[in-house]
Design brief:
Elements lengths: L7 E5 L3 H13 L3 E5 L2 H11 L3 E6 L9 H5 L13 E3 L6 E3 L1
Parallel strand pairs: 1-2, 1-3
Antiparallel strand pairs: 4-5
Length: about 100
């Protein structure tokens, strides 16, 4: 089990520059990270580390393979008692869902 003071998050982003910037910021904020650069890798990490993960941050549009919506519903990542927040910033597709 991970240290509750340093929660383990899964971060998924296919854009290398954004991924590197966010990883640095999240680690500086004290989070431990598993990092994936595409949907299939994210699903594998999610399934393998589900018991230790405390959160998921994912891009929605990830190219080929599962997108952020599919990843968020894999392996029971959204508990009935949790309130997921999803923000997809304006681009070719943009929406806010709850």
């Amino acid at each position: 089990m991970t240290d509750p003071v340093s929660p383990l998050l899964l971060y998924v982003e296919d854009d290398a520059l954004i991924r590197e910037t966010m990883v640095e910021s999240l680690e500086e904020a004290g989070f431990k990270l598993l990092v994936a650069d595409h949907g299939d890798q994210a699903v594998q990490l999610l399934v393998a580390h589900a018991a230790d993960l405390r959160g998921l941050i994912t891009d929605v549009n990830l190219g080929d393979g599962p997108d952020g919506w599919a990843i968020g519903t894999t392996g029971g990542t959204v508990d009935d008692d949790d309130e997921p927040v999803v923000l997809d910033l304006p681009g070719p597709k943009h929406e806010l869902r709850r």
